Amino acid sequence: MSVIERYPRGFAHIQEFYRELSSLPTLTQFGIVFGPALLFPVLYVYGLTSWQFLNTMTLTFLFIGLGHGWNVIGGYAGQISLGHAVMFAAGAYTTAVLLVYYGVTPWVGIPLGGLIAVSVGLLLGGLTFRLRYHYFALATLAATLAVESLFNRWDFIGASVGIYYAGVETGVESFIFDPRWLHFYVMWIFALGVTALIYRLHHSKLGIYLKAIKMDQELAANAGLNVYRYKMYAMGISSFIVGIGGGLYVQYVNFVSPVETLDLMRNVEILLVPILGGLGTVFGPVIGGFIYMPTREYTRGMFAGTLVGVDWVLFGFVLLAVVIYAPNGLIVRLRQKVASAIGDDTDD
Fold first, then answer.
1. Rounded to whole angstroms, what are the CA distances from 102 to 87, 245, 248?
2. Is pLDDT of 2 > 70?
3. Best CA proximity match to 194, nearest among 24, 34, 84
4. Which alpha helices (H) appear in 152-216, and where do they start and end?
5. Of 185, 169, 215, 224, which Cα lies nearest the Cα of 75?
């Protein structure tokens, strides 16, 4: 007996909710997903929740944006990049160097970091897009390891010690807010804006072309698509989003180093979010962000000290369960279940 047959009333409610949600205007759907989170800082200010919760939610919305960025190249174009930590570092280091060394406001440094990340991403794509499958993934991973080694030895950017925001005053101009919970709204705006951008991409000609490339690159080329060009478009958009995220991150933590930006786990974190939620979908990275970041933050706190590393073991089991139960991501699995129950199939 299937779950649907065992709990017919429960699935009847899900079906009805699915129909209602799908029929709502796009802005209303975004409001339902993002609107309630606006209350998180209010709950913290009034002592109804902890700083750990608010910090976790701040990082969650940051990684929703980062996950969307990787999803453009990995989920839509089907190019499994293991080098997006380089673009993240480009945005973070550009913002930090301009502010700490030259006094340039992050209002300039963050978008400039995004543009430098685009340049780095296009260079990386130009050198590696001739490769396919695991060869491409390994080449991008090699690029990350090479840049990490360089940054660990580059004295101008603090080498392995990194750059601290010592002496930088808080304020709107420095983009370091006091109280710190204001950064939550920055990350919320970032996640909302990127999600809206991806929604537009998902329903655009570019999105259709990228999905075609992911499905069958040779067939797309034979149909007349310039595969290399559209993969470069995807890499540029993806790199810009991740670069902006890097700049926002360094303004939140007030510190940047190779470990913070170029560590292997940073690469893994960025791509885990869309993989968990659903590759090539609009709300997949949103679901993935809300699964990954709270799991990571709370298990890391629970197993600090002598049990360091156990949090990754537990998260590995969570990831394994998701991969087995929903290999295409949770949102795709849910959509398939509900669609099969109501005899319909809709696109996210």
1. 22, 21, 18
2. no
3. 34
4. 182-202, 205-215
5. 215
Average the pLDDT over each of 17-26, 213-222, 252-261, 323-332 and give the range with the smallest value: 17-26
Q: What's the CA gap between 102 and 313, in Å, rounded? A: 42
Q: Which helix (H) or strand (E) holds 177?
A: none
- Both ends of the chain: CA-CA distance in Å? 29
Q: Which residues contact 249 (CB under 8 A, 6 or more apart)?
A: 62, 88, 92
Written as six digits, the tokens of 257 are: 């180093």
Region for 254 from its dihedrals, namely left if φ exceeds 0, alpha if ψ lies in -120 to 50, beta otherwise = left
Distance (Å, rounded) from C-alpha 75 to C-alpha 177?
A: 34
Chain segment 23-59, per-residue pLDDT in tens? 667 777 788 889 999 999 999 999 999 999 999 999 9
Q: What is the C-alpha to C-alpha distance for residues 281 and 279, in angstroms, rounded to an integer?
A: 6
- ∠ CA(26), CA(29), CA(31), 5° rounding? 110
What is the reported pTM?
A: 0.89
Q: What is the DSSP string of 70-98?
A: HHIIIIIS----S-HHHHHHHHHHHHHHH
Cis amide prior to 274 (ω within 30 degrees): no
Which residues, listed in sequence order, are joined to residue 53 by a DSSP beta bridge?
A: none
Return phi, psi of residue 167, to 5°.
85, -5
Beta-carbon contacts of 123 under 8 Å, excluding residues fewer than 6 positions away, are none
Backbone angles phi, psi at 116, to 5 degrees: -65, -40
